[in-house]
Amino acid sequence: MHVYARPSGLLQNGHGVASSPPGSPSPRIIRNARSSTGGGGHTRSAARMVHTGSGALSQGPPRTFLQKLTISLLTFFLRRPGVLLLAPFIYFTGMVLYIGGSSMELPRFQPRHIPGSYYRSDEVFRNLWPAMQRADVSTAHGVLAAWEYPKEGMGYRPCLDDLHHGSFEGLPLSNGYILVEANGGLNQQRSTICNAVAVAKLMNATLIIPLFHFNSVWKDPSVFGDIFDEEHFINSLAQQVRILKELPKEVMSRFDNISMIQRVKVKAWSLPRYYLETALPLLKQHGVVRFTPFANRLAYDGIPEVIQKLRCFANFEALRFAPPIATIAQLLVKRMAAKSASTNGNYVAIHLRYEQASLADMVAFSRCVYEGDQEEKVRLDNARERGWRGKFNRTGRVQATPEEIRRDGKCPLTPVEVGMMLRGMGFSNTTQIFLAAGKIYNEEESMEPLRRMFPYLETKQTLLSPEEYAPFEGYSSRLAAIDYTVCLHSEVFVTTQGGNFPQIMMGHRRFLNKGHSKTINPDKRSLVKLMDNPKIKWEKFAGHLEEMLRHIDSKGLAFRKSLPVLPTQLFQNPKASLYTCPVPECMCSENPNSIETELQDSE
């Protein structure tokens, strides 16, 4: 027992010394008491001793749990000062938990607006429409003044004449038969066919007319002969490659079905070495092989020049549309030219990808946001699920936001955006326009502004009678072939979204137009920023787009292969497809001396 806790009158050291008067024990006695105890329990008991009313010391009431917790926490923090640095975090966390449990909401901070992130084109149109109506039509460039290039003597011409020489009998003995399955839409099938011709030439094989894979998106059961002229295709290539409509019966009799034929799996963008070292031995062993899938299975670089020219020849000359398609397509071209008499038969063709064609919903696939309301979200989510079965909802899939997609220029242009762009570039409201498209998304509402800006707008349905249109209705590839022809012969072609159609189209137009694509392929990253300002003035808007058109014109002449020094009138695009940029492998300069002189002057 501690000394200051003894009862009154108790003798200390046996001498009968009276206890201290009532009051607090001296600090010295407390210190002695603490030091004399071995455990903390005695110390804490002593610290709780208090004086009673009679002057004796006694133990006070026990502490509550809250008091014990408070003392423990204070002791912990006083002994570890560094932990106090966490106090603001603990306080903030407590406040968030408290506020979250109440009816109050935390303030929401709006992110900084990045130009081009959101669709505001409808607002821009409402602002600019009065100025468009007042604009002087005489200042418009129009169809006839759209292109400045190529300069006189600086164009290119096809140089594939050497492929017309030779004979079927002069070909070496065939190593066997190859079968190819072409998948995708019309123009992906087109490039696959041309690559198959090239591989057949490399392997000295007989090509069987490619099979068309039935695509669940395009839903077109057409075969090769329904779309392309088989006889012309076989005969025009006979001097270079053997082509048969089907596998000979004696060969096919060895197999129960085509799937039993030796399959050769080819990596994308394979070089000739793979076909010669891996596929050719299998062909010689089995006599017949099939390549599936075959889209993009032949590289564009590292290919012998003669094979490159053969690919161009197959694409631009051997592949012609079947007579029923060619006949109706040429009729449409003539009718568009007749309506464009004031511009010498020249018209504008727009490939509009703002489509909603059953499962092939381009708007849904792009994941872009337009109206932004709940109805649009539900409609597009349902379209994605129908067409791509959870592709966009896979666990762990990292996806760009709709805002990022739009800023990156990957959203299909809407009809109002296309109209404003063309008016800004100087095309008047009297311009004759052919619209190549499937069913337009939200057609009645979205097409109204475009028709207001360009009232002379035509489609297949407006140019053809119901009887003329009926044989092609429901066949997406055949309708695409008709659109292809009308676009090919236009003076100005406008592409609004990437894809195989515009890429093949630009190359074919270069092949026919001295190397110039005569195509408006807008810089959509700049365009979305321009159309994100509802208060922009017409003069500024039109000025930007006129400059864009001049830049597009200068890039119309594109050179695919790299050169040490590039002629000033050519835009270099080494990553492009051969079918998009046939210069220089398949086209030669109209004036070689002028090119050589320019190269020498620039050295």
Automatic annotation (TrEMBL):
The keyword Mitochondrion does not apply. Coiled coil: none annotated. Pfam families: O-FucT. It comes from the Eukaryota. The keyword Transcription regulation does not apply. Residues 1-46 are annotated as: Disordered. Belongs to the glycosyltransferase GT106 family. This is O-fucosyltransferase family protein. It comes from Sphagnum jensenii.
